[in-house]
Amino acid sequence: MKRRIRRFSVLQTSWVAAVILFCVMMVFMIPMGLIFTLLGKSGLIPGGFPGFGGTFFFILPFFYGIIGFIMTAISCLVYNLIAGWTGGIELEFDEFPTAPADSGL
What we know:
Layout: E1 2-5, H1 10-42, H2 54-86, E2 89-92
Antiparallel strand pairs: 1-2
């Protein structure tokens, strides 16, 4: 069975992309921020990390989320425009039978 993506909802798609980017960046940036903060205060690195304090790594996920929202919105708008001319991306799916739902009573 073939299906086409004719249009993306700009705000919904951008919101989802921004939240995903924010969460992924939080997973990486919080540990990095803690490590860089501890290394800078430990005296192991002379002068610490100028411009890369702990708060930088906590602010960066918000920045990525905002930029991700904007870039996804622009991408969706461009896709919607081009899909109007070309018909959109065509996907092919296989259908397979599903097991009947068990009532479990």
